[in-house]
Design goal:
This protein has helices at 2-29, 41-46, 58-65, 76-89, 94-123, 129-145, 150-153, 159-185, 189-207, 216-228, 238-261, 264-267, 277-296, 321-338, 344-357, 378-394, 402-423, 426-436, 441-456, 458-461, 465-485, 490-502, 513-520, 528-543, 550-563, 568-580, 585-598, 604-615, 619-632, 639-645; strands at 231-232, 235-236. It has 30 helices and 2 strands. By secondary structure, it is mainly α. Helix 5 packs antiparallel against helix 6.
């Protein structure tokens, strides 16, 4: 009778632990739901009018689904979820957006428990089922409460990464459910086909949430080679095991062959980056160790929204940690492979982590470092950590794993609480990021920009004149600090020019920021953020022509146009400026026509062309460009705009300065 009570008590304890962990995550994250929308949230959500829908018609949903400019697949599943947020609330409420993110986070944690339990059962890890259950609950709890994931859950637009992870984890669990039966009993062709169709559906949903979801089949191969090893119906099938390893290494071999035989295929995307393909690959070897360190030892002092203070690797020994990082990964892989039968979770976690990072941390010319890239790859590392936490103490006579598990989860709750509190307020978040990453030009920029916004909202916030003045002075200080950390950042020069020309006019004679910008633009390889900064600069010129002479602005436009003769950005800046200077249609129309020819898929030239032809009362040309607009808008995203242009007065595109 006593033994039976103990057996019952353990599952009850586990259920209580799981419930407490879910409640802890919910209540710790709640204060962060009121945090700011920022960075990619703006173009993807608040500035994306296609996703601002009432939800009353199917066509609104269709347009919203394909309204993202991110990724080749346009991420329609994620965009539909954002559209649903807007349709239900009538606006983008930060609390509403982030509450959905939190709900997804909690659901993934539950699915992870089921996945982890399946993996542990398949590997026969744990002296009994209660030990395996405790490891699975602990692993899911570590992942759920990990402070690294705050920058995914509380960053609204990263619902894309969350939804991709949700469908991937669901797909892995479905695979484990089927494959465990096939391991013991085999399966008829019909059942294999049914399972394949389910996995294909989940892969499609994951990839349409974010392209990294397309890694699901490769991650399934990782589970196959590390857990089932080609065993089918109780027998080891040599060709099945060989196929698993072949499919695992095939993508790596394909990329290596492309690098060796046709490197220009991959190098073309780096023309808009200030780092090369080689520098990215060398740097990512170090970055992956940073990621692993943040997962295994969650020091929140090293975390942050921006990590551009991590230097690029210019060569194998520049810095010297590059060669150490490059050598370290083969050592880890070989060690894990040699111990695969004794410690199968080690190889599983390492391969899952590396495959999970393969799309965003390899040859594609993306930004170097972002924490949200660890959201899915960290899952199996968390399982390994839970195993290391529970197994050593579970082997004794008295099962005392509750103590280290409880201690670890309490520490994670404390770290999560601190980080969520930081993310609950824009000024607190940007101040903390700057303090933790003082050499990051972007961290300095976000703090300076948050201070500038506080200054502009001083009356709404009830600030005193002293506090208002301090906000403005500190804003300029950190923009200058940004310039000192990276004097090749266009945004720093633009914002210093703006502040000195509008608020600190007595400083204009001391430093000519516009002249410095003019020199920089002669050599700078323009980054996406630089084009955004230049858009702000020309908004400044447009909204207040007195800050500079027309000759200076025109000279800057001419210089940039000479360097980038096929840049649609430059045509847009010139059009906006000349339009503000009241140029006539004869000067403006050629700019718009050239922009339309260079980028026929961009909507803004058509909109402005129709406006200019409407102003000239040229109906034939209006219909001509409306037809071209529709021809190049295969998804009919702009159909409602075109209708409105023919029925309502059209306003030209005005300046916007945040």
């Amino acid at each position: 009778m006593t033994g039976s009570k103990a057996i019952v008590r353990k599952p009850i304890r586990l259920r209580i632990l799981a419930g407490l962990v879910l409640l802890a995550a919910l209540f710790i994250y709640l204060p962060g739901l009121s945090g700011p929308l920022f960075f990619d949230d703006m173009p993807a959500l608040t500035a994306n009018e296609f996703v601002h829908i009432t939800g009353s018609s199917f066509d609104e949903w269709r347009v919203a689904a394909f309204s993202s400019g991110s990724g080749p697949l346009r991420r329609p599943i994620a965009m539909l979820s954002f559209a649903a947020n807007y349709a239900l609330a009538g606006e983008f409420s930060t609390a509403g957006l982030k509450a959905v993110n939190l709900a997804i986070h909690l659901v993934i944690a539950v699915l992870l428990y089921l996945l982890f339990r399946s993996i542990l059962t398949a590997l026969a890890i744990g002296r009994d089922s209660s030990t395996s259950d405790l490891i699975a609950v602990t692993a899911a709890a570590i992942w759920l409460l990990h402070p690294l994931h705050v920058s995914t859950v509380l960053y609204a637009v990263q619902r894309m990464a969350q939804l991709a992870a949700l469908f991937v984890v669901a797909g892995l669990w479905v695979f484990m459910r089927y494959r465990q039966r096939w391991f013991d009993q085999g399966a008829p062709a019909g059942e294999v086909l049914a399972a394949s169709l389910w996995l294909l559906l989940l892969t499609t949903l994951a990839a349409l949430s974010k392209e990294s979801g397309a890694l699901l089949p490769w991650l399934i191969i990782v589970l196959e080679v590390c857990i089932y090893r080609g065993v089918w119906a109780g027998r080891s099938i040599t060709w099945l095991r060989g196929c698993g390893w072949m499919l695992l290494v095939l993508p790596v071999v394909a990329v290596v062959l492309v690098l060796a035989l046709s490197p220009e295929t991959l190098q073309g995307g780096y023309s808009g980056r200030e780092f090369t393909l080689e520098e990215r690959l060398l740097t990512q070897a170090r970055v992956l160790w940073h990621y692993l360190g943040w997962i295994c030892l969650p020091n929140i002092g090293g975390m942050g929204f921006q990590h551009d203070d991590i230097a690029f690797s210019a060569g194998l020994f520049a810095p010297v940690t590059t060669i150490l990082a490059l050598l370290g990964w083969p050592v880890v892989l070989l060690t894990a492979f040699s111990l695969r039968r004794r410690y199968p979770l080690l190889l599983l976690a390492v391969l899952f982590f590396l495959v999970g990072q393969s799309l965003e941390s390899s040859v594609i010319p993306l930004e170097m470092v972002y924490e949200h890239r660890n959201y899915l790859p960290s899952t199996l590392v968390c399982l390994l950590l839970a195993w290391l936490l529970v197994i050593p103490v579970s082997r004794g006579k008295h099962f005392k794993a509750w103590y280290p598990v409880g201690g670890a989860l309490v520490i994670l709750c404390m770290l999560l609480f601190i980080r969520v509190h930081t993310w609950s307020d824009e000024l607190s978040l940007s101040r903390t990021n700057q303090a933790q990453h003082p050499e990051s030009s972007r961290s300095n920029y976000f703090y300076a920009n948050a201070l500038l916004r506080q200054y502009r909202r001083s009356e709404q916030l009830g600030l005193t004149q002293r506090e208002k003045g301090e906000s403005l002075l500190l804003s300029r200080h950190y923009f200058e600090r940004m310039y000192q950390t990276n004097n090749r950042d266009v945004a720093a020069l633009v914002m210093l020019f703006y502040l000195d020309s509008h608020y600190f006019t007595e400083l204009q004679g001391k430093v000519d920021w516009l002249a410095k910008l003019d020199v920089l633009l002669s050599t700078r390889t323009m980054q996406p953020s630089d084009w955004n900064a230049l858009a702000t600069l020309f908004d400044i010129f447009t909204s207040n022509p007195a800050v500079s002479t027309e000759a200076t602005v025109t000279g800057l436009l001419d210089k940039l146009s000479a360097r980038y003769p096929d840049s649609v950005h430059m045509l847009q800046y010139r059009y906006k400026y000349q339009s503000a200077m009241e140029a006539d249609s004869a000067q403006l129309l050629p700019l718009l026509q050239r922009a339309q020819e260079l980028d026929p898929g961009s909507f803004w030239p058509y909109y402005q062309l129709l406006y200019e032809y409407a102003r000239d009362q040229d109906a034939a040309s209006m219909y001509h460009y409306a037809g071209l607009w529709l021809f190049h808008d295969s998804n009919r995203l702009s159909i409602h705009q075109i209708k409105a242009l023919f029925t309502l007065p059209v306003e030209p595109m005005g300046p916007s300065l945040d």
